[in-house]
Amino acid sequence: MIRVLLVDDQTLVRAGFRSILDGEPDIEVVAEASDGNGALRLAAEHRPDVVLMDVRMPEMDGLEATRRLAADPRLGGVRVVILTTFDLDDYVYDALRSGAAGFLVKDTEPMELIHAVRVVARGDALLAPAVTRRLIAEIACRRRAPEPSPLLNGLTDREREVLGLVAEGLSNDEIAARLVLSPATAKTHVSRIMTKLRSRDRAQLVVTAYESGMITPRWLA
């Protein structure tokens, strides 16, 4: 059972998401909060698998709440998905750097919401759609010059190749097919890269790849 915490200051938004998610046999909404303070308290109490987090809220916004959740070692298994709209692009990128596993637009289709919760719950980043990859890449390249990380020096050539594919939004199975590897081997490579780069999850790998200048998207070259 995937346990979900809903965090949004709009009651109707929470009610709509709850009605969609509670209808799935493998998903349970365990709590709701209307601001970041409530999110932190309820996350510590319920230890959800996934937190659907709004950005703009009173008292404590979603970015600060995400940073605190990601920094709490007791909540290492909690994955945050930011709820946003496309006019909040900068917030999205800040959230990913703060530890969010991905983001969703609030007017997403019900099946996309359900799929997103399952994807994040199993440890993948919610970065697969092409528009998402382009958005993150554009923001990363627009906001700052590349900052090479010395941690990248510890990667093998194969691991650099795998990191590039992760940054494109490919899943482990897709990486395996591209490189003619077994899915288990692809997963092992990704896990080792996360350890070497001290990344919380795949979303953090993508941010590192873009910020370091290791990955330059073709559409921005």
Automatic annotation (TrEMBL):
Statement: the UniProt record of this protein carries the keyword Transcription regulation: yes
One GO BP annotation of this record: regulation of DNA-templated transcription
Top-level lineage group: Bacteria
CDD domains: LuxR_C_like (cd06170), REC_NarL-like (cd17535)
Matching Gene3D superfamilies: 3.40.50.2300
Keywords: DNA-binding, Phosphoprotein, Transcription, Transcription regulation
SUPFAM superfamilies in the record: C-terminal effector domain of the bipartite response regulators, CheY-like
GO MF annotations in UniProt: DNA binding
UniProt protein name: Transcriptional regulatory protein LiaR
Annotated organism of origin: Actinoalloteichus hoggarensis
Species lineage: Bacteria, Bacillati, Actinomycetota, Actinomycetes, Pseudonocardiales
